[in-house]
Amino acid sequence: MNLLVGCTLSYDVLTPTANFTFNILANRDPYQHLGEETISVVPEVTLERTATSKGNRVFRVEAPMGPFRVEYRATVEVSRPFAPPEVKSDNPGRLPLTTLTYMLPSRYCESDRFTQVAWDLFGKIPNRVEQVREICRWVDANLAYTPGATDSRTSAWDVWQLRKGVCRDYAHLCIALCRALSIPARYVGGYAVGLDPMDFHACFEAYLGGQWYLFDPTDGISPDHIVVIARGRDAANSALTTIFGRVNAGPVKVECMLASPVMAAPVVLGQAAE
Fold first, then answer.
1. Which of 15, 36, 60, 125 is 20–30 Å from 263 (CA)?
2. Per-residue model confidence as pLDDT tens digits over 197-219
3. How many whole angstroms separate alpha carbon 172 and alpha carbon 152?
4. Both ends of the chain: CA-CA distance in Å?
C-alpha cells in the first residue's frame, strides 16, 4: 500500500535560541520502504540527523527567537503483515533476548499490576493471537474515547481506573495486559489513514510466533494503512518533540492518505527556506 504522509509544526521561540529534537520521520524497516522524503524548516537552520537506541530516525535543530516552522512530507510503501488466525505458541523463557525489555513493566505500562486481571479476563484463551485480539476488543469496548481526560503523566493503571482516554492510553493499557500474559508488546507512534480529525496516532505491536504484528485497539485501522514513526517500551521512548528552551506551540497539521501506486524512486532529505 502506497501512502503519502506529512506534518507541519509551528512554534514561537521565546528565548534567544531553543533546541528541538523531532521524532516525526517515517521509520525504515523491512515492511516500510521510503520513496521521496523532504524536510523544510523556516527560517533555514542546520539539521543534525541521527537515530535513537530504539532505531527511531530523529533530527535536531537549534532555532532562533521568533516564529519557527517544520514541514515534513514522505511517500511510503507499506507491506506490513497481518496477524494470522493462529500462531505456534512461544515459550516465554526461550524468546529472543531482544524482546525481553518488552515483557517488563515500564513507566506507562505497569504490567506487574495487571497480572491477576489479565489472567482472569484473558488467561483461558489458548490461542495467543486471539488473546491479543480479545484484549483489543475489551479495551475498545470498556474505554470511552475522551480527548482531554488524560495527559502526559497518565499510565495504563490510571486508564484502567478512569476507563477513558485517547489512542495513547488505549495502546498503553493493551501493552500492559499483553506483558502481564508474558506476550512481548511495544508502543508504536505513527501516521494512520482515515483518522477524523487527522492527527498523529498511537497503537502497538505484539510478538507472536517469532514475529511482530501491529494492532490498533482504538480505531481498528489496517496494518498496511499505518506508517510507523517510532517504537519503544511506551510513549516515553517515542515523544514526537523534545524541546529545551521556552516556546509557544502553534497549530499542528498532520496528513496521511493513499498515494499513487507509482512511487518516487530516490530519497531526498534536505532543507529549504521561503
1. 60
2. 999 999 999 999 999 999 999 99
3. 12
4. 33
